[in-house]
Structure formats: structure tokens, C-alpha cells
Inverse folding.
């Protein structure tokens, strides 16, 4: 047992060493950690409250006091972008958590037990895949109504199919392995086999998918915010900030520049890290 | 081949039944009474009860679902808008060409930028051309389309004043929306084409072609490209779904009267039959595109054709 866990540890350690050599992935990780830091310490970093309006200082161009300028209500854009990181990252991670939990369960049960479970779940997945992800998210928001929790559920549930498929495919190949047969021969229950052997061995592709998935979830949430169905004002979600700012782009493009940059940098960091992780953890998928 | 195509067409039916059931169930259990949406908060109980009966809202859930499906199949009737009382089908049909045109233009941009970029990157692997192309592809993948749309408007409509920022009637009006929608997808297609091409490049038959003394151009076009395209076609098919979704956002940026814009407005007004109809029509379009892609796939990949000989 000790040998087994040491081996496992060294495998992860080796992956980490390989990831460290990938400069782009390290850059992605550094940016992501920085963004997480900003999100956690938003109260300390933001010089102004994100709601405070100052009608004497509307549309101020970026300067020493207001680094990113102010919006049409005189609110400090830098502070709103900083607080926005908290909302966007939270939605990204929790939505992926929801997708992973439901999709992982569906994929594991379908792949491991096959038969009627597989047929039923996979037809459900086919049906969900027939609706474009953002449209599925829009429909769920239409049903649940706006709000951060509903947005997380909408974005999470709409990405369930991709996780279900990946986990199912991996579980199906792992199921054929001799060590699973050995575990069964030793009298392990299905539940124990899934928990102890199948899930740990599907982690690599799931981690890769999740990293890129967080990027997708943040983009979906921002897209919903942009069309007015996401986080409602005055909460500073980056997509809704872009939507509010686009009415003033002729004279005050800075209203859209910074939330746009923030989304792009976040997505870029997750994509860089995701690409690196894929090369390290999932050589089969290597581009 | 005919057998394969026939089987594939039959697969669309259960998926569409599933989509209609899923969407109908979701909308059915949405909080809020459609009768109140139609008649307003001040309506009398009598008129509320009467309309409920007329719309069949007192019937059991499954009866309502089967009536809805029957009306679609037999009369192409998707119900009437709660707000305008116009038929949902005609509301959608009048806007559908714009959404489809937008998505198709997006695919056109995606293919015409993505595939050449991916091929050049693969052929010139690890040179500066490859690095620059893949850097832009990475930026393209990470750029939210709604921000890109705004940046294109700032550059081409506000600063240079050479292209209009709204509408969708003339070809000039179509350029910015198509670019906005297609470039992100082009980046994904470029990355996929590059990796697929590199995979094909390692194959023995490419070495054989080269050793026969063929020029690099012939090797790429005659031998590598066809096999490279097989996975790329799948990605383009998947991208179409992404582009249909993206069209909703693009329609918002450029004020294009399309199905997406119609649905977003309907959600705000709680006009749920429009939302339901919109999802069905877009899902049906996506299923047909996937069907087309699978058939294309069979034409490109002799292995699939052989299975059904």
C-alpha cells in the first residue's frame, strides 16, 4: 500500500516538475495565482467601494486617482474590475464544480455499469449536446431567473455533457484494466472500486478539462452578463460592465477596455495553464 | 453509404423529441403564470380561468406536451406569443435567415482564416511564422467575442469610419459581425488543423511521397491535406453550435434582428413560448448541421464508407 501511494505521489511530483519546465504554463499559473490574490484581497486592493457613485466625476479618463477612470455614474472602474475578479472567478470555479459533480457522476455510473444506465444517461447527454452551451445556459437562466447562484447553476449544468463524456470514456477504458479485475477478485465492492481505483485514475483528463472549463464558464457567465441576463447591476461583473460601457464607446472607450482586458487575461492564463497541463498529464491529447 | 446516411437521419428524430421534452419541461415548471403575462395583473378571475381553459393549461402535463408536439408536426404551429399574440413560428421565421446567415458567415471566416493558418504553422513548425500564428490563435481563443466586437466597432466604425456598426442588410454591415463571430472559432480551427497536420506529417506515406521526389506543395495539398481535414471537419461541425450560440451575443452587439435577440427580449418579457420555440429551432438547425458534418465525414474517410458497403 505504501509503495502504491509513494508511486502515485511521485507521478504527481514528476508531472509538476515537467509542468515547471513549460514556460507558457508557468506564466498562466502565475497570472492565475495573481488573479486569485486580487479576488481574495479585493477589499484591501480596491481604493473605492464598487457601488459608490460620484456624479461630479463621471467619465473621468484614467489618472492618478482613478487608474482606470470612472464610468457614467462616476464609479471607480479599477475598483469595479478588482471586485469583478471575485465574482468571475467564483462563478468559474463553482460552475465547474457543479458540472464536475453531476457530469462525473453520470460519466462514472454510465461507464462503469453500462447497460440501461449508460443508454439513459448518454441519451440525455446527446439531447443536451444538441443545444449550444450558451443557449442552454440562457434557457436555464430564463427558467431560474437572474442572480449569482442561478448563474452558477445555469453555466454549470450547461457544461455537464462534456464532463460526462470524458469521465465515461476514461472509466470504460480503466474498467478493462487488470488491477480492477484484481480488486474485484479480492472482494472489493463496486463502490470501493470506483472510489479507490477508477476515480483517481480519471483525474488527469478531468483536471485538464476543468482548467479549460473554468475559462469557458467565465466566458459564458460574462456572455450572459453582456446580453443582460447575468449578474445584475450594481454588482461589478465584467460582462455586464462591458454591456453598460458599450453605449458610450464613441466618446469613452475606457469603460469597456479594462473589463474586456480583465476577461481576456483571465481566460488566457487558464488556457495557457490548461494547454501545459494537457501536455504533462494527458500525452494522448497533446497537440 | 445510403444505409449510413439513412441511419444517421433517423438518429435526429429521437434527439429532437428529447430536446422538445427537455425544453417543454423546463419552461412548464418556470415560476410565473403565462395567463397573467398575457392578461396583466389586474385581470378578473373569470377571464383568467377562461383563458387557462382555452390555452389547455388545465390539462395534465403530458397531454399539454403531446398537444404542443402534435401542433408542431402537423400544423408547424409553435403557439402564440404571450406579448404580441403573433404566431411564434412567424416571429422566428422572419428573423431566422439573419441568424443562419450570421452563423454561416462566421463559419466562412473561421475556415478561410483557420485552415490556411494551421497549415502554414504546421509546415513551418517551430519557425517565427509558427510562433506568431499560434500566439494570435491563443489570443483569439481567449478573446471574448463581445469585447472583440466592441474593439472592431471602435476601430472600424468610430476611428476609421469605414464600416457601419449596426444593421445586417448590406454586405458592409455584415463584415464586422462575421469577423467578430468567426475569428475566435478561426483560432480553434487553426490550432486543430496544425496539430492534425503535424500528426499526418509523421506518417510513412508522407515520407514515401517526399522520397518519390514530389515537391513540398504537392505533398501538402495532394497527400497531407485530405487526411488532415477529417478531424478538422468534426471541429468545424462542433464550432457551428458554438457559432449559433455566439450569434445570440453578436446580434446584441450589432443590433441585428435575429432569433437570439428575439429570445433575449422574450426572456425579459417572460414570453416563454418564444424562448421555447427559439431553442427548438436552433437545436434543430444544429442537429441538421451535425448530420451534414457526419455525412461529409463519411465522404472524406474511406474507413467509414467501407463499414457500410
Amino acid at each position: 500500500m505504501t509503495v502504491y501511494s509513494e508511486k502515485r505521489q511521485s507521478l504527481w511530483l514528476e508531472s509538476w516538475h515537467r509542468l515547471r519546465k513549460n514556460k507558457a504554463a508557468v506564466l498562466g499559473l502565475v497570472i492565475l495565482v495573481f488573479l486569485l490574490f486580487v479576488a481574495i484581497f479585493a477589499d484591501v486592493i480596491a481604493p473605492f467601494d464598487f457601488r459608490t457613485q460620484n456624479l461630479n466625476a463621471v467619465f473621468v479618463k484614467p489618472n492618478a486617482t482613478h487608474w482606470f477612470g470612472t464610468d457614467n455614474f462616476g464609479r471607480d472602474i479599477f475598483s469595479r474590475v478588482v471586485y469583478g475578479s471575485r465574482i468571475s472567478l467564483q462563478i468559474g470555479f463553482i460552475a465547474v464544480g457543479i458540472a464536475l459533480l453531476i457530469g462525473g457522476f453520470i460519466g462514472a455510473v454510465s461507464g462503469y455499469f453500462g447497460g440501461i444506465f449508460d443508454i439513459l444517461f448518454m441519451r440525455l447527454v446527446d439531447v443536451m449536446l444538441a443545444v449550444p452551451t450558451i443557449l442552454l445556459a440562457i434557457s436555464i437562466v430564463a427558467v431560474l431567473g437572474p442572480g449569482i447562484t442561478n448563474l452558477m447553476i445555469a453555466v454549470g449544468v450547461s457544461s455537464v455533457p462534456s464532463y460526462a463524456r470524458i469521465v465515461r470514456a476514461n472509466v470504460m477504458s480503466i474498467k478493462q484494466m487488470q488491477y480492477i479485475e484484481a480488486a474485484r477478485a479480492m472482494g472489493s465492492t463496486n463502490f470501493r472500486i470506483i472510489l479507490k481505483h477508477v476515480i483517481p485514475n480519471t483525474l488527469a483528463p478531468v483536471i485538464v478539462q476543468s482548467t479549460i472549463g473554468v475559462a469557458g464558464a467565465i466566458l459564458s457567465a460574462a456572455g450572459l452578463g453582456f446580453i443582460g441576463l447575468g449578474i445584475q447591476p450594481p454588482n461589478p461583473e465584467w460582462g455586464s460592465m462591458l454591456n453598460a460601457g458599450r453605449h458610450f464607446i464613441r466618446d469613452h472607450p475606457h469603460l469597456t477596455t479594462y473589463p474586456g482586458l480583465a476577461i481576456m487575461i483571465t481566460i488566457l492564463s487558464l488556457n495557457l495553464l490548461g494547454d501545459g497541463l494537457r501536455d504533462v498529464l494527458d500525452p494522448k491529447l497533446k497537440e | 453509404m445510403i444505409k449510413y446516411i439513412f441511419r444517421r437521419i433517423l438518429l435526429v428524430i429521437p434527439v429532437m423529441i428529447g430536446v422538445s421534452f427537455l425544453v417543454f419541461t423546463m419552461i412548464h415548471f418556470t415560476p410565473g403564470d403565462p395567463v397573467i403575462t398575457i392578461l396583466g395583473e389586474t385581470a378578473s378571475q373569470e377571464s383568467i380561468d377562461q383563458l387557462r381553459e382555452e390555452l389547455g393549461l388545465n390539462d395534465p402535463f403530458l397531454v399539454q406536451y403531446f398537444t404542443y408536439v402534435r401542433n408542431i408536426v402537423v400544423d408547424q404551429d409553435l403557439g402564440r406569443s404571450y406579448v404580441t399574440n403573433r404566431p411564434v413560428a412567424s416571429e422566428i421565421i422572419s428573423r431566422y435567415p439573419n441568424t443562419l446567415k450570421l452563423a454561416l458567415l462566421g463559419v466562412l471566416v473561421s475556415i478561410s482564416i483557420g485552415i490556411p493558418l494551421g497549415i502554414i504553422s504546421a509546415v513551418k513548425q517551430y519557425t517565427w511564422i509558427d510562433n506568431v500564428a499560434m500566439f494570435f490563435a491563443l489570443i483569439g481563443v481567449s478573446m471574448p467575442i463581445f469585447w472583440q466586437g466592441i474593439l472592431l466597432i471602435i476601430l472600424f466604425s468610430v476611428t476609421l469610419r469605414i464600416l457601419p456598426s449596426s444593421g445586417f442588410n448590406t454586405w458592409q454591415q455584415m463584415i464586422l459581425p462575421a469577423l467578430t463571430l468567426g475569428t475566435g472559432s478561426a483560432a480553434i480551427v487553426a490550432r486543430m488543423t496544425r496539430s492534425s497536420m503535424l500528426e499526418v506529417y509523421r506518417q510513412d506515406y508522407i515520407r514515401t511521397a517526399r522520397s518519390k521526389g514530389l515537391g513540398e506543395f504537392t505533398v501538402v495539398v495532394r497527400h497531407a491535406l485530405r487526411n488532415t481535414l477529417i478531424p478538422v471537419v468534426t471541429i468545424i461541425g462542433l464550432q457551428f453550435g458554438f457559432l449559433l450560440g455566439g450569434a445570440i451575443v453578436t446580434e446584441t452587439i450589432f443590433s441585428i434582428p435575429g432569433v437570439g435577440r428575439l429570445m433575449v427580449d422574450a426572456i425579459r418579457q417572460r414570453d416563454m413560448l418564444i424562448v421555447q420555440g427559439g431553442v427548438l429551432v436552433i437545436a434543430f438547425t444544429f442537429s441538421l448541421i451535425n448530420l451534414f458534418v457526419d455525412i461529409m465525414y463519411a465522404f472524406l474517410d474511406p474507413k467509414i464508407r467501407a463499414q457500410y458497403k
